Amino acid sequence: MKFSVLKAGRATRRTRERIGDTERMFIDLLARPGDQWDVHDVEHGEFPESVNDYDGFVISGGPASVNDQDPWVLRLLETVRQAHRENIFLLGICLGHQVVATALGGAAEVNPKGWDIGLKEVELTPQGRELAALMGAPQPLRILETHRDVITKLPPGAVHLAQSDLTLYEMFHLGESVLCLQGHPEMDNDEVREIISRRRESLPEQVAEAGLASLSRQPHRAFLQKLLQNFLQGKGLQQQGAIGQKAV
Predict the structure, then answer these.
(1) Beta bridge partners of 2
(2) What's the pTM?
(3) CATH number given to 2-240
(4) Catalytic site positions
(5) What is the pLDDT of residues 163-184, one digit of tens each?
């Protein structure tokens, strides 16, 4: 199968030196033998010639807001709509989560509760727990987060899968071809430490300290990797229990 990372931002300098940039983290997490992976730096105007050249797209996180009127953000929203019309797999992460939701009829805005950063415990909804029962998902699910914007409205027909104390819509799916997460399954704890350090002056002291303290534990990377790989291979949510449940 053929996939592309639609890259909307870079990893920190130390992470790039240590393990590689954003696309490398996603490919290391998601690739299976025989897959082909391309990268399109959409933040700098590089887009696929045709969405039909790919079986799926991974839309990464980044520093922009989905509500920015920058030409590349508007083009990314339209690219997502085109891919969805063609039933191409869409995996949205952080900003990508917000982009997919907005492109398909939802909405996102700055979280009035402030920054959500560090290792978070995510509670599964009843629909999410059905998925967990089939896959043996840990509950609560631990995932790394670093974001200020959140989804405030799901797209029509979307199924809400998870939430947390600061973020209502942590995870959702839409049909068989869309799965989105607010958290960062591709990151590791060192990357989030670096982000907190880089943003220290702009973060409330309590938020920064709590974020750093949370990194004494590890995310449930193995489960997230299995979930996302299966989804992109077309044998994920149909067989993992989320497809066909009543939308909320």
Answers:
(1) 36
(2) 0.93
(3) 3.40.50.880
(4) 94, 184, 186
(5) 999 999 999 999 999 999 999 9
